[in-house]
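Researcher: Here's the sequence for the chain we discussed earlier.
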Amino acid sequence: MPNTPTIFLVLIFALAPMANAQYGRNDYNLKGLFFGATTPTVITQDLAVAPGKGLTGGYISRGDVYNNFDISYAMVFFQNQCTIQGRNNNISGDVIMELSGAQIQLLGGYQIIRHHLSLDMGPVLSFNGPWRAQSKDQELWQVSGYDQLVVEDLSGVSPVQGHFLIGLSGGLERLKLTAQYQRGFSNFLRKINNTNLERPVNGFSGQLAWTTIGVYLYF
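Model: Thanks. This is the structure I predict for it:
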């Protein structure tokens, strides 16, 4: 059975012709930049994770499809942080974990107020690097809840994720604010289960998720 990132990749390529078709329309076809602040986390029962902060930004194009429906295509980068609990010499403390990567987003929108307020949703294909401690001094800290697992062992997470995003954007035709929420449906921690590292009985399971408050600036 295909895994979740593969399904999302197929879905994005299946919908891509609709995004390309919008360029033939002259009534509403915009290109621009996106900037935002994120509050990322990992939804899991296997680690003590607290939401953190991050930044995201990239390129977006948006155009009408039919009546009040439009479609947008975006390529964005992100740099996110969240916190896990660790131990050093039996003293507990916070470990800031960093994750950076890029996303391809293909969102369908319903314009509640034409060209000024829209509800957006759709698939996201997310690529990320290792999940690492911000401070190298904490890489050998024990992960809370485990005896043999250290923070450095968590770096080998899955590099490709399938997400679903929903958001609301509104404002002027060429300047809009947006509030978004996206959550992964693939197991961010799956790759760790393929090692001999200490892990829960049923293996690690967790999904990336974050909210974004941002702005679209169209040319």
